[in-house]
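Table S2 (text version). Query chain:
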Amino acid sequence: MVGEPVYTIYSKLKEIAEDEFEDIVKSTDFIGGKASAPNKLRIYFSDNSFLDIWVSANGDYSYHWEHRAQRGLIHRWDNAPDHLELHTFSKHFHNGSDKDVKASELDEDYEGAIRDVLGFIRRELAGYM
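Corresponding structure-token output:
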């Protein structure tokens, strides 16, 4: 999907979230930018936490699950070029905080990645509720 328009990517991810994860997804929204070119996709969950998704046409990404208000935690999958020590560089996973960073095996394809991330969130929410 590298090179695909960002709006098209966000639209596909929104559709997957709403169709395949309706048990945990409360709503979705395009955030920032303009209607034809939003800056990110936000997915709200049944516990009022949310996932912000930022992708670029060149393959950069961040999937940030914000649930500090509910549990004091964040989880983020991204490929910022830091954490050289990880065998999956530049892909990495912030596991509960910005300081706990692990290797990430997140799918390279946006559609596979959103299913991985939302599957993780579904399993985590099941443990909290």
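Notes on Table S2: DSSP finds three helices and seven strands in the chain. Strands lie at 25-31, 40-45, 50-55, 61-67, 73-78, 92-96, 101-103.
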